[in-house]
Amino acid sequence: MPAQRDGDPAIPRADGRVSPLRNLWRLRRYLRPYAAAYVLLLLAALAATGAGLAVPLVAQRVVDGPIARHDPAGLLRLGGLALLLGLVEAVLIFIRRWSQSSSSVGMEATIRADLYAHLQRLPAGFHDRWQSGQLLSRAISDLSVLRRFLSFGLLFLVLNVVTYVAVVVLLLRLHGPLGLLVAASAVPLFLISRRFGRHYHTASRRMQDQQGDVATLVEETAQGLRTMKAYGRGPELADRFARRARALHDTGVGKGALLARASALFDLVPNLTLGATLVGGATLVARGTLTIGELVAFVSLQLMLIWPVQSLGWIIANGQEAATAADRIHEVLDTPPSIVDAPDAVALTRPAVRGRLRFEGVSFRYPGSAEPVLREIELTVEPGETLALVGATGCGKSTLLSLVPRLYDVTGGRITLDGHDLRGVRLDALRRLVGVAFEEPTLFSMSVWENLTLGCPDATGDEVRAALALAQADFAYDLPWGLATRVGEQGLSLSGGQRQRLALARAVLGRPALLVLDDPLSALDVQTEALVEAALRRVLRDTTALLVVHRPSTVALADRVALLDGGRITAVGRHSELLATVPAYRAVLAAEPSPAPGLVRS
Ligand SMILES: Nc1ncnc2c1ncn2[C@@H]1O[C@H](COP(=O)(O)OP(=O)(O)OP(=O)(O)O)[C@@H](O)[C@H]1O
Ligand SMILES: [Mg+2]
Questions:
Q1: What is the longest distance spanned by two Cα atoms in the chain?
Q2: Could you tell me which residue, 115 or 57, shows the higher pLDDT?
Q3: Is the pLDDT assigned to residue 232 strictly greater than 90?
Q4: How confident is the model at residue 414 (pLDDT cuts 50, 70, 90)?
Q5: Torsion of CA 534, 536, 537, 539, to 10 degrees
Q6: Does ligand 1 have an atom closer than 6 angstroms to the CB of 399?
Q7: 72-121 vs 35-62: helix axis angle to the nearest 10?
Q8: b or e along 418-455 (b: 16 or more beta carbons within 10 Å of the residue's beta carbon)?
Q9: Cα 399 to the center of its chain, rounded Å
Q10: 402 lines ligand 1 (CB under 6 A)
Q11: Rounded distance, CA 168 to CA 161, Å?
């Protein structure tokens, strides 16, 4: 069997292909709102460069004019001019830096907001496949790479190319043959750039993927800290982490070596050219075909090329990293959200809903898995009825529930609410109508109040109080800041049963038309369970409800029970009926009243 790679093969990884910079170009839409600022900063930068370029030309006039003619007044005039040019350059640089950082930070924020909004739209199936660290690294480090490119790389690329062309034109005008010599140095520079860019792209893609791997591991460790510690798995994890961190480090060092090699070459070429022009220029001065002032201007101008060429390595590296970041960000942005509103979707409102939920020949297969989890499910929950779903562990009960709020879409058949196919109901309306509590009662790092009103932001104090009373979650008032207490990340500062009761209160808040509860009482002690049950019974009276139930005691809440077995509903009926007539049902519920035969005999 082939070894499994880290991460899912569905997530694109470093493949060594060179990006045609297409994805970087596609980000230009984010540049649009800042176009004016960008033009301003480009103009400021160009003007600053122009002011800088003028200085050597002034120097040429100084050497060939006032100095040669011993003219102090002229010297003062030209010196003043040089000083003025320097001042103008400084002001322009200030303008550039200021508009540069404000626009690039703004762009980064917009892209990040879009990415986050898109992640919200993507279905549960997408998040099943993607490691959270890969998403995290895209939202954080890839975006900051892009910001650096937008604020520095791109600008200096334009600026340096313009400077290079302008200087070469000036050099050609100063002295044709010497200028041509400098212009010819662009050929080796181009060849080095191309080769370097190709290698660097592969390395930076690998590095950014590995950053995602490291982030995933850190996140998993933080989340599963208790389990890891309890199993004494610290050292093994540290090993695994060290391996991944090592891989990241090695890629980083490799990248550094590539950049170092390229930078050395980018340094060598202009210096070699400078040496050649110095020798050539001196010969020409000796022959009298070039003045000393012209040679000074020529060399000073040429010196201005050294930095743009030297920085080429850094700019290309930055550009390639940005291209990689753009690729990785588009891998998320280009994934179409598969669960969206149909164009003619209706917005069902609470008062208009009676609450008849039907599964009509529903089949479901998880994306990427061969076997369907649910096959040809036929099931009706009448308005106001409570149906309990019972079945062996792993048979697909939670999966069935997750189809109701459309976390996944059915792959066959349909689910209807009062005759409306769920896919024809607006998602926001559907999710308002359905109250859900999952097996894992997830709480977010916000206040208890905010956690409770997640699906119902305009709930009143009375409604919240009623929901808390129903879920026997009055303990929330005794928290240090009452309902304003922030519960920790994932609500870890609360006990399992407390979290479950808050999640239940959240589900029943706002009296949803449909209640979907996945084993809502599993973490409660017998007494609390009885209290919650009694209260829940009152809510369930006028709500259609689908509950997953593992314990016989909770089954009592339901009007009818459906047995899920092998992905199919194999029996539906009253608890007592099924208990009497369906052996499989008895087996699953490990029916309380009849003790195991072995025990009776002994
Ligand atoms: N996100 C997923 N992607 C792929 N397969 C999944 C996914 N979630 C669950 N499965 C598979 O679907 C099957 C049904 O899982 P499900 O969680 O619905 O079972 P369950 O009946 O709720 O079990 P339990 O009683 O233990 O909660 C299992 O075989 C499981 O491996
Ligand atoms: Mg389950």
A1: 127
A2: 115
A3: no
A4: very high
A5: 140
A6: yes
A7: 160
A8: bebebbbbebebbbbbbbbbbbebebeeebbebbbbeb
A9: 26
A10: no
A11: 11
Distance CA 193, CA 320 (A): 11
Q: Dihedral (C-alpha) 444, 448, 452, 454: value to the nearest 10 degrees?
A: -40
Q: Which amino acid is at 514?
A: L
State the Cα–Cα distance between residues 277 and 300, nearest whole angstrom: 12
User: Each residue of 238-285: pLDDT tens digit?
Assistant: 888 899 999 999 999 999 999 999 999 999 999 999 999 999 999 999
Q: Report how far ligand 1's centroid is from the alpha carbon of 366 (Å).
A: 9
Unique residue bearing structure tokens 């005999």: 601
Q: Which pLDDT tens digit goes with each residue over 352-400?
A: 899 999 999 999 999 888 899 999 999 999 999 999 999 998 999 999 9
Q: Is 369 in the pocket of ligand 1 (CB under 6 A)?
A: yes
425 dihedral zone (left: phi>0; alpha: psi -120 to 50; beta): beta
**Rounded CA gap, 258 and 71, in Å?**
53
Q: Which helix (H) or strand (E) holds 100?
A: helix 72-121
Rounded Cα distance between 196 and 257, Å, is 11
The 3-state DSSP class for residue 163 equals helix
Residue-level pLDDT at 44: 85
**Domains (ranges, CATH) in the chain?**
22-333 (1.20.1560.10), 350-593 (3.40.50.300)
The C-alpha atoms of residue 473 and residue 443 are separated, in whole angstroms, by 14
The mean pLDDT of 285-305, rounded to a whole number, is: 88
What CA–CA distance (Å, rounded) separates 595 from 77?
A: 110
Query: Position of tokens 């460790």?
Result: 221
**Residue 393 CB–ligand 1 contact under 6 Å:** yes
Q: Measured between alpha carbons, how far is 87 from 244 in angstroms, rounded to an integer?
A: 51
The answer to whether 247 and 274 are in contact (CB under 8 A) is no
CB of 30 sitting under 6 A from ligand 1: no
Both tokens of residue 245?
A: 């961190």
- Number of neighbours of residue 278 by Cβ within 10 angstroms: 14
Provide the β-strand partners of residue 568.
Answer: 565
**Ligand 1 atom 6, closest CA:** 366
What is the predicted pLDDT for the residue at 322? 92
The phi, psi pair for 147, rounded to 5°, reads -60, -45
Pair 579, 589: CB distance under 8 Å: yes
> pTM of the full predicted structure?
0.77
Smallest CA separation from ligand 1 atom 16, residue: 396
CA-nearest residue, atom 28 of ligand 1: 394
